[in-house]
Structure formats: C-alpha cells, structure tokens
Amino acid sequence: MPTLAPPGPAVSRPPRKTSLQSDSTLGLLAKIVLLGLVDAFAVYVMITLFLQEKWLILAVAAAVTVLINWIYLRRGGLPAKYLAPGIFFLVVFQVFVMLYSGYVAFTNYGDGHNSTKADAVNAIQLSAQQRVPDSPAYRVTILERDGVFHLLATEPDGTVSVGTTGEPLEQAEDAVTDGTGKATELEGYRTLQFGEVLANQADILAITVPFSDDPEDGSLKTGDGSSAYVYRPSLSYDEDTSTFTDLETGTTYSDTGEGSFRSDDGEQLSTGWKINVGFENFTKAFSDQNIRGPLLQVMVWTFTFAIVSVLSTFALGLFLANAFNLPDLRGKRIYRILMILPYAFPAFLAGLVWSGLLNPEFGFINNTFFGGADIPWLTDPVLAKVSVLVVNLWLGFPYMFLVCTGALQSLPEEVNEAARMDGASAWRTFTAIKLPLLLVSVAPLLIASFAFNFNNFNVIYMLTDGGPRFDNTTANIGHTDILITMVYEIAFGTGVGRDYGLASALSIIIFIIVAVISAISFRQTKALEDING
Amino acid sequence: MTTFIDPQAAAPARTQSDGPGSIPQQRKRTFGQWFRHKGWRHVVGVVTTLFAVFPLLYVLSAALNSNGTMAGSNVLFSRFDGGNFEALFSNPTRPFGRWFVNTMIIGVVTSAATVFLGALAAYAFSRMRFTGRRVSLLSLLILQMFPQLLAVVAIFLLLNAITDVVPWLGLGSQLGLIMVYLGGALGVNTYLMYGFFNTVPKSLDEAARIDGASHVQVFFTIILPLVTPILAVVGLLAFIGLSSEFVIASVVLTDPDSQTLAVGLYSYVAQQRSENWGVFAAGAVLAAVPVMALFLFLQKYITNGLVAGSVKG
C-alpha cells in the first residue's frame, strides 16, 4: 500500500494521488456497511414493487440503486460521492414533487376521482346497494377483533357465518348459540355489549359483508345491530359497453370520457376515476363562477398582504433602528431584548394566541382595552384584514429592526460627517444618503421577506383560518385567505370535496409568481450593486 | 433633529471618556431639550416594548390561571397555580407530552441530518472543482426560492403512494416526514456553509493530504472542527424552523400520538377556542420556551449578518 510509505519529499507526490482514492480500513468498512444497508432496503422495496406489479416504479428504483452503487464503488468521481445523499432527497422531495404537482394540475385527481376505472366500477357496485325486497332476516351479533367490527350472522335455517367489509361471509361452525339458536359468541372475537353497539353506531351501520368476491352476489347489512338483510347492487355493470344500468328505473349511465359515468339527462354517479383533463383546471379557476371571483379577490389580497407586511415591518424596524442608534441611550439593551421577543415566539403559536386576544366575545382586547365592546376583529372582512396585518407586523418588525440596526451601523461614519459639513439637516442626511445606501444592503432581504410573506401560511391559518367566508362561493374560502391557504383548503379542507387537481393548478400559479419575483430580485440586486459601485 | 446632538453622535468615543463631565452638561438641559434628544426615544421604546410584550404576558398569565376559559383570563396575573399544566399532561386524547417528544425527535434528527448533508455538499463545492459545479450551485440557489409547502398536495400524494409499498415510510410516519423535510436540506443551508467553508484556508487540508490523510479524514478531522460555528447555527435555525412547521406535518401525521406540537396545539383550539384556553396557553408556554431560548442565544449571529439572508420560516 502506497500510503504506508514515509512522507518523504521524494515519494510524497505519488502517494498523495492515491490517498485521494483509498480510505482507511475503518472508512472502507463504514462504506460497505452503509452501502449494504441501502442496497438491502432497495431490494426490499423492489421485491414489494414486483409483487404489486408496479413495473415503471420498479424500473426507476432499479436504475437509482444501480446509480448509487456506481457512484460509491467506482474510483474517482469524488464530488458525486459527497453530493449524492443531499441531492437524492432534493430530487425526490423537492424537484420531483414540483414536477408531480405540474402533472396533477392536468388531471381531475380528487375526491371521487382518485383511482383507476376498474376500481371505480368495483366501488360503485359496492356502494349502490339496495335491500332485496323479500330478503330473509338474519339475526346478527356484532363482534370485534383487532379494532375491526364483524357481523356474526345466523340464517333463519340456523347456519352461522361471520364476515366484515371486504371479507366475504364464512361459515363459523363452532359459534356459541343462545337458547333461541342465535349465535352470540365466537372464539377469537369479542362480543360487543349493547352500550358499545350504540357508541359505535356509525361504524356498525357501515359494515357491508359481501357473500362472495363478486359484488353482483350482494351483501349483508344491518340497520340496527341485531338483524341484517340481503342487499344487492341496484346498478348492473356491462363490461362490453362499459355502462351501468339502474335495475329499477332502467337509466343507463355511460362513460363519457370525463372520468365518470353519466346518464343522458346529465346525472352522474358519484364515484369516478382519474383522467387527464388538459387545461380544464386552469380554465375552471378563471371561469367557474364558484372559484373565479374568490380567486381574484384572494390574489389581490395575497399581494396586498405581502407588500403591506414588508413595508410596515420595514418602516417600523427602520424607525426603531434609527431611534435606538444612539450610543449612550440608557436601557437600549433592555428595549432591544424585549422587542426581539415576538420574533423568537413560534409563528404558529403567535397566530393562535392573537386569535384569542382578538376574540370578539371573550378576547382581552375587546374586554380590557375597549371596555367590553363587541368589535368584530376577526369576523368583519375589513377589520380581519387589518388584524392580520397588525399581527404580522408584530411578528415581523423585530427582524427588520435587527437588520436595519446592523445595516445602519455598518454605514461608514464619514458619510454622516461629510453630509454635515455640507450643511445637510439630519432628515436630509437620512433620506438622501443613508436610506439609499441602506437599501442596497437590505433590498435582497426585503424581496426575500416579500417572497416569504407571499406564502405565510401559519399567520393566516392560525389567526383567521381565512375567514370571514366569502358569500359567493360554496368552498371554504374567505376574505383573509392567501393563495397558499386556498390551496390547502381546496386540497385538504372539509368544506367541499378534496380537489387535488385544482389545488395543484393553483400551486402552479404560485410557482410562476414566485419565479417571476425571484427573477426580478436577481436583476434588481445586480442593478442596485451597479449603482453603488 | 436638533443640531446639538451632532457633536456627540459624531464622536461617540469622546462621550465615553468624558463620562463624568457629561453629567453636569446633561443637567443643564431643560426637559424640552432632553425630550427632543433622548426622551422621545424612551417613549418610543416603552410603547413598542408594550406592544411586543403584552401578548406574551397575556399567554403566560392565562397559562398560570386554572380558571380555564378565555373570558376568565382577561385580568392579567389574577391567579397563580399549575392546574392548567396538570390538565395538559393528563388528557389521553390530546397527549401533549408525546407531541413535545415528537417535535424534539423530528426536529433534532432532521436538523442533524440537514447539517450533515449540507456540510457534505458544501465540502464538495468548496474544495473540489468539477464540471457542473457552477450550474449546481446556481440551481440550488434557485430551487430554494420555492418552498416545499407549495408542493404539499404532491407530497401528500407521493407519500400516499409510498404507503402502499413501504408502510413505515408513508402517510402517518414520522420517518416519512423527516425524509420530506430532508428534501429541503440543501438549498440555503449549503449556500451558507459553502461561504463559511471557503474561509478555511486550503493550505490546511493540503498539508494534511501530504501527511497521508484521505479526503474523508480531511473532512472529518480538519474541516468540520473548524466550521463548528456555522454547523451549530444552521442546525439551530433548522430546528427553530421545523418546530413551527405546520402544513406538511398536518398532512402527513394523522394519528394524535404521532403529531407534533404545531399540529397538536392547533387541534387543541381549532374546535373550541375559548373553553380550552387556559390549557392551550400552558401548552403554548411550554412549547415556546425552548425555541425562544435557542433564538435569543442565536440572536447575535443574526445581527452579525451571518444568516442575514434567511427569513424565519
């Protein structure tokens, strides 16, 4: 091994080169163990993918595994060895998810459209169940195993079987029966008491036990936890024409190419599947009456919120920095520490705490400062906006105060002196000389602050939750919602169904706005630097 | 502003050395002069301090008042007792203790990994020259402009898909959440570290190389000890940011036992803001204290401009 050679001047050069590539034994061992663990995990993932027949992802996973091994097992290529771990996460959880947002924005992904067509057909058959009119009554007992409720059903002829949602009925011969022949207990299961049945009513009513794997055979459902009846799909599926027919009314629902089954008179079955819809989400955002109005208002408010937040925090911060930029001011340090506290307070808590302070009925502000007045701080559209801005000022001014203090102190003293020599007043020195110089150093921070506030989710969501709500929409969007909270509300909100496609389309719009801001900021900083030097 | 402050401001050093002499000079001033020079600054200071501090005092007072409701918390510091804290730790459906531990674990693991991944990358950028180096640095700078929360829908769907393959990394898993956070490990952190790494003279690692040290040894034994300050700052800032992260955590962590403080405390007040108020305030105080302590400790680095480009998230 060349590394063993003494570091004499004559041999120092060749070993140096090889030492770049050969690690110590410990290093080699660590590398083998780590790479082995990564590979073991990769193989586990790939086997699972193979069993689930997800070929595309399997191919990608295999390629990534090969790439990682190649990076770490070959000689040379040192930078890649250091960059690979960070870049791996960056590519998957930052770059890929952005591209994936782009893809989802062009689909109808969301509630009712979250799987393939085959899954949708199956789900419709299961959900559209109707009680068979002459169904015999099965006497049932509710059982529980591993937190899942089962039906123990006794047929009129005495046969006992057990099953639950997704698990077809199975004969249970060793069940314990009571005097009337009704099965009440089964080994391996716990029988629910009457009180428990009442407490879990919703879950128990939802149990649908199929008779077999084919949904057309029907299933068993209970309405009261003691007797059950046979239910059959009221819709019959015809695979050749890919249509559903309602067995009662005879209405035909056909696949119209929009990811759902629709009848001739426009009625739609609630379960659909995921398809590509092109630009529909974007056109919907700007033309659908339910979304267009709110979206435009939200956009205007997002910009207002971000701009006013930056300007107000900067103005207050700069004013304070000036006021306390006096070397011999007493108590300066105490003021400083106390004023920085809001910046140190976690932002999400600040929103929640202020929502309590501003609560119209019980809040501190109304009860103590305004003597019990009923000022609707968070429920009036205009006041809610003012409240949001004040709270964000509270959160943000200390940062600007720190930044401006730093920037003011780094200005050369000669500037001040020269201005005074020329007879400039303090105000004029400030506006004509200090402020422009200050802006050069803080402009990038102002733009960063704008970009941050543009997506300042926590303050809005914790303080007002976007409220008060708009009247002109059914979605849960309100006067203080900004774009990112609107995205969250549309994707995960409880108001109307989740619409991942539309939410992603809106995120893409935010992406574009942020990109434009960043591009301008890069140029702007350059321009300001040019002015200065 | 008045003119007579100028000589003083122009020569701050002299005021200090003339300390004893300046006191009689100050006494000679009328109140009006004093006010125009310094007094108004104290007025500004007191008013701003009150604005800054009263919400914090309010939440502290509500936490110590076991009366519990929001309406009962409106007289500051009317009662002192620990009833709210007891209630906080004895509610099994809202396990505050678990949330606290979860937040610590997720925060510490993620920020440690963030520091490590960032340092690896910064070492490569600072010490090695390779094709694509400039482009990579620039792409990092551009990518960090787009916060991860913009892609929260896609992150949710991706984790949903991962759940089918590796359940312990998918939705509901803290490890999955940590992985998502690590997607933002490079970016601004690498940039900060890269600048700091460049200040360590290259002759140091070259000397070590000549003595036979490998690149790994140079990284761990020479560079890392010398850049500990920036590692600490990046780690602590990452921790502070993560402890406030709500959007992604709320989407990924669904089970109350696995949630973080941000998600848990939100759920505490989301439904019944006014009834749970005292208990929530107690939780807020406990959640805020570690973060605020860290923050005040870091404050001087922030003013030093070391981390001037980072905005709290």
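qc> Chain B touches chain A through 110 residues (CB under 8 Å).
qc> done
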